[in-house]
Amino acid sequence: MSSAPALRGPGGAWLPGPWRGDGEPRFRRVAALGGVYSNHIALRRALEDARDRKVDAVICLGDLGAFGPHPDRTAALIRENEIPVVRGNYDDSIARELEDCQCGYTDPKDNHYARISYEYTLANTSREYRRWMGSFPSTLRFRVGETRVLAFHGSPRRMNEFLWETTTPTHFLDGMAREHDAELLLGTHTGIHWSRSLTGGGSYVNAGALGRPANDGLTEVWYVILEAAGAGVAHEFVPVAYDHEALAMEMQEEGLPAKFVETILTGWWTTCLEVLPGKERSRGRW
Amino acid sequence: MTRIELAVLDAPEEPRHQAAPSVGLESLDELWFQVSGTVCNLRCSHCFISCSPENHSFWLMTREEVATALEASVELGVKEYYFTGGEPFMNREMEEILGDTLAIGPATVLTNATLMPERRAWALAELAERSPYTLELRVSLDGVTKEMNDALRGEGAFERCMDGVEKLVKVGFLPIITCMRSWPEERTEGYLDDFGDLLAGIGYDRPRVKILPPLLIGEEAKRTRGYEETERITHEMLHGFDLSQLLCTRARLVTARGVYACPILLDSPSARVGETLAEGAESDVLLGESACFTCYMSGAICSNTSASQGADR
Questions:
Q1: B154 and chain A: CB distance < 8 Å anywhere?
Q2: Could you tell me the pTM of the whole model?
Q3: pLDDT tens digits for A175-233?
Q4: Beta carbons of A150 and A156 less than 8 angstroms apart
Q5: Domain limits at B39?
Q6: Which residue, among B73, B169, B301, B306, would best test binding to A if mutated, counting the most A CBs under 10 Å from its CB?
Q7: Would B159 be classed as within a structural domain?
Q8: In this complex, which of B244, B307, B309 lies closest to A167 when CB atoms are compared?
Q9: Which of A73, B11, B36, B122 has the smallest set of CB atoms within 10 Å of its CB?
């Protein structure tokens, strides 16, 4: 297992410890990040950025591995900083050593590259981290100010459900918020950040992904900050510029597909495109 | 019309229906509309519900009928809307219907693209532009050559379809080309490359292509073969099976003549699950039809890939 030093603030541990107690923890300002996909360089940069923004908690929305190099480096950063994680489909597959990543792809072209990524990640995740991933809960509840937040990977009902901006009706999210007694639904899985105010006064926030760019031709990756604002909550999507060329080099050294490297260097998705709805696909290059 | 329907409903059930397992609706994620009934401008030799210009067993739906179901769907938490037929654009109110739908959610139209004058392509592009939701055009093209396609879809269908696809691409759509696999499975990859070349030739350089397994019912059963008696879903087959792979656990089809469990089973009286959407959502579905076997083996082939289902939490 490779190790990564914990990020410590000047006064010692700056990130909150593990989820303690039975009640819903309450925070003022929370950083939520997901879809790390083994991008340990962007993860470190995002954690530093969150520290500078004086968040009082960081939560990870799952999928530590996939796509990028050296999955243990990402796992070490998350674990040593005691960041709570909700289970993503990748974490679930790696923990249980399943045959595939459960990404939810159905097209052969998507599945071809998903398989390369999964086989590499499974082979390079240490047994200790695999076991640890098996302990991730499927959801976490907390409050930002007064607002009740439900965090999950894909959706509260299905870990690998895609909630794309252009295929997810507001009334569908309204029903989900009601059913799960939450005022803010917080997820990832699609890899593209977006948000929507719901009819009943709640909101849905998709934190996007730290692992690869948002298919917009920019190399930055994204996370989100939630902050108590009056009786409600405000959110800000944060772009993370990082040494993407260093990541690309590591990926090449590890023999990962050139198409994956191209995405990191150009900001355009090159694989697993068939699962995109038409509108999201049109905005990309491929 | 009522008399025929009663006669069909009163028909005694076949023995296999009694032995078949049944499933309920887990959540109504997809709402399908038989928006042009069984009326189609083409007469394909593999149509699983034998649609044609003269098949009026299911009539066109009115904008008002669709609107009533759309209204009910909001409370039921529907995620995606699909429009099928027949040929949906045989319905003169189709553009208005899509406008109503795109105001509340994403819409997919299963079309042969042969009724696609430039004016319509532009009108659809405008509807898509105005909505926060995606409008998907799923175009049936059953071969990479005129000979291959027209053998199934009729003389001239290839050229008219390619012309429709070209117009859709020109106004900014990325239509999903769907093709029934009429070849041995191992040749699919080669055909996908051929589709790529064919579509690049009309300016569609990043085509989305969806290959579907054949459904051995309707005209296709006459053209090739029907299902074997052993090709049925049994109780044992459902042990440990992810039920979300079966479309009827998360979808219903609204028609001008009641609600059905599945868009494939329009000709099966046992698949009619109610008069209204609320009734249809409450009813269990008997997996007694032979086509259920294809859904079981291939997994809800009718949905778009962006709606794919997978592991439970």
A1: no
A2: 0.92
A3: 999 999 999 999 999 999 999 999 989 999 999 999 999 999 999 999 999 999 999 99
A4: yes
A5: 26-298
A6: B306
A7: yes
A8: B307
A9: B11
Q: Which residue has the tokens 């994620």?
A: B29
Backbone dihedral angles phi then psi of residue A233, each to the nearest 5 degrees = -140, 140
Give the CATH architecture of domain A25-282.
Answer: 4-Layer Sandwich (3.60)
- Partners of residue A108 in chain B, C-beta under 8 Å: 188-189, 192
Task: Please tell me which of the candidates A106, A166, A273 has its beta carbon nearest to residue B106.
Answer: A166
- First-to-last CA distance in chain B? 46
Burial class (CB in 10 A: 0-12, 13-18, 19+), A23: exposed
Contact A248, A264 (CB under 8 A): yes
Tell whether B9 is covered by a domain. no
ipTM of the predicted structure? 0.92
User: What element of type H or E holds A245?
Assistant: helix A244-253
The residues, any chain, with a CB within 8 Å of residue B229's CB and separated by 6 or more, are: none
| Closest A-chain CA to B26 | A157
Q: In chain A, what is the straight-line distance between the N-terminal and C-terminal CA atoms, in Å?
A: 37
Q: How far apart are CA A257 and CA A279, in angstroms?
A: 26
Residue B310 pLDDT greater than 70, yes or no: no
When scoring A196, A279, A280 by the number of chain B Cβ atoms within 10 A, the one with the most, hence best to mutate, is: A279
Give the nearest chain A residue to B204 (CA atoms). A286
CB pairs under 8 A between A and B: 107
Tell me which chain A residue has its CA closest to the CA of residue B171. A282
Mean pLDDT is lowest, of A24-33, A122-131, A181-190, B116-125, for A24-33
Instruction: Report CB contact under 8 Å: A107, B210.
Output: yes
Cβ of A106 and B308 within 8 Å? Answer: yes
B67-76: per-residue pLDDT in tens?
Answer: 999 999 999 9
Q: Residue ranges of the domains in chain A? A: 25-282
Residue with tokens 């459960």: A102
Q: How far B308 CA lies from chain A's nearest CA (Å)?
A: 6
Residue B165, domain member (yes or no): yes
The answer to whether the Cβ–Cβ distance between B104 and A169 falls below 8 Å is yes
CA distances in angstroms from A74 to A32, A129, A160, A214, B282, listed in the order given: 16, 10, 21, 20, 46
By Cβ distance, the residue of A160, A165, A175 closest to B310 is: A160
Question: Residue type for B149, please?
Answer: N
State the pLDDT at residue B301: 81
